Amino acid sequence: MGGGLAGLIISIHLTREGVPCQVIEKRSYPFHRVCGEYISNEVVPYLKSLGAYPEELQPASIRKFQLTSVNGKSAALALDLGGFGISRYQFDYFLFQRAKQLGVEFLLDTEVETVSFANDCFTIHTNQEIQEADVVIGSFGKRSKLDIQLQRSFIQQRSPYVGVKYHILLKGFPDDLIALHNFQDGYCGISRVEGNIVNLCYLTHRDNVRTHGNLRAMEEAVLFRNPFLKNIFEDAEFLFTKPETINEISFETKAPVERNLLMAGDAAGMITPLCGNGMAIAIHSAKILSEHVLRFCRDSHYSRQQLEKDYSKTWNQHFARRLWAGRQIQRLFGDVWTSNAAVNLARYARPAANFLMKQTHGAPFDIIR
Ligand SMILES: Cc1cc2nc3c(=O)[nH]c(=O)nc-3n(C[C@H](O)[C@H](O)[C@H](O)COP(=O)(O)OP(=O)(O)OC[C@H]3O[C@@H](n4cnc5c(N)ncnc54)[C@H](O)[C@@H]3O)c2cc1C
User: Fold this and answer.
1) Contact between 179 and 228 (Cβ < 8 Å)
2) Residue 357: pLDDT above 80?
3) Is 276 exposed, middle or buried (0-12, 13-18, 19+ CB in 10 A)?
4) Beta-strand (E) ranges in the chain?
């Protein structure tokens, strides 16, 4: 349920191993999503082994990091592992085509309304039809109507975060840089994707938008106080007629298994975007979940109960600490004093800054043969 990165990768992994798979996605590819579009290189070996690394789309290779504070102090760091930049419009479409070539079945423009489990079988109601399945995976992202149906605890509280994305042309912006610019109550990432397009994506508090009435007014009143952001907005050519936006982004803890459903990607837990790691975690959780599901399909002695227990444990071992660290580090952002402290840390206490960054990053991983 959900054909974002996690759902697409699981469908590719399982189908390559001979397990038939169907993806139900409420939208139709290609489409834009709110995302910084910087992917940590930790996923590269695994994507290559699935034949799913988008080499032909010529992603940007990103090696350097710049951090600026609310009032424009700046620090530079090298990224030890680095990453690549590619738009979700291209990347998700590339993965969709790859999955289709392998024989994955897609139900597009189809929204799952409810899912239930009884007598060792799932029943899925979509806006089109009713389906049954032995294994159902929740890869429906950060927030879905299914979270309400499943009465997940995080959905009971409102979340104040708003995400905004533009694609821009920006002369002179380095190919290999990801910059993270702070502003009052938010931060903005800028990095290159394929071609000469630059992604500009920010996260802020909904009160920031409310106070100023609309995004443009807020950008001028708040983001422009950081001189780096003012220059970027004034020099950029904006490629969208209006930005992509999302609201109610929650970083609360979720469970990787809920009512027998196995969750992957943001549906299992979302890391704060400043870490630039949500997509890597979505892909890594897809790999781990695929391996558990394969064992369940192949080994008749491996029970559903054991599958759920093992997957929960493995997910927590790999990701719970990273998500927690991301929430703590986010507190250093979006405020004059703390963002200056973060810049000073990056300038004068480089080992400590590198240590903090490493807490949210994983090591490269590959398929288990
Ligand atoms: C502002 C912001 C900036 C970010 N920047 C970065 C970054 O630079 N680098 C990074 O690694 N990560 C970043 N992330 C995080 C990253 O975007 C996510 O972690 C990643 O997209 C998770 O993938 P996913 O497959 O779990 O979910 P998604 O990619 O969101 O896919 C979920 C899919 O499920 C579908 N769906 C939902 N409900 C239903 C339903 N009921 N029926 C059918 N389909 C359904 C949706 O249409 C969607 O296609 C950022 C996030 C935000 C908010």
Assistant:
1) yes
2) no
3) buried
4) 22-24, 38-40, 60-68, 74-85, 105-107, 112-118, 121-126, 130-133, 137-138, 161-169, 177-183, 186-192, 198-205, 237-238, 244-249, 257-258, 261-263
pLDDT digits (tens, 9 = 90+) for 94-129: 999 999 999 999 999 999 999 999 999 999 999 889
Residue pointed to by tokens 């289709």: 100
Is residue 74 pLDDT above 80, yes or no?
yes
CA of 169 to the centre of ligand 1 (A): 24
User: Which stretch of DSSP H or E encloses residue 235?
Assistant: helix 227-235
Residue at 12: amino acid letter: I
Q: pLDDT by residue (tens digit) across 157-166?
A: 888 999 999 9
**Taking residues 238-246, what's their average pLDDT?**
96
Residue 368 has pLDDT above 70, yes or no: no
pLDDT tens, residue by residue, 216-226? 999 999 999 99
The whole-number pLDDT of residue 308 equals 98
**Secondary structure letter of residue 317 according to DSSP:** I
Q: Which amino acid is at 11?
A: S
pLDDT exceeds 90 at position 364: no
Superfamily of domain 5-358: FAD/NAD(P)-binding domain (3.50.50.60)
Residue that is written with structure tokens 């809920």 in the block: 258
What is the rounded distance in angstroms from the CA atom of residue 64 to the CA atom of residue 126? Answer: 44
Does any ligand 1 atom lie closer than 6 A to the CB of residue 278? Answer: yes
Our answer on whether the CB atom of 138 is closer than 6 Å to any ligand 1 atom is no
- Would you give the distance in Å from CA 27 to the centre of its chain? 17
Ligand 1: atom nearest CA of 5 is 25
> φ, ψ for residue 197 (rounded to 5)?
-85, 140
Helices (H) and strands (E) in the chain, counts: 12, 17
Task: Break the chain into its structural domains and give their ranges.
Answer: 5-358
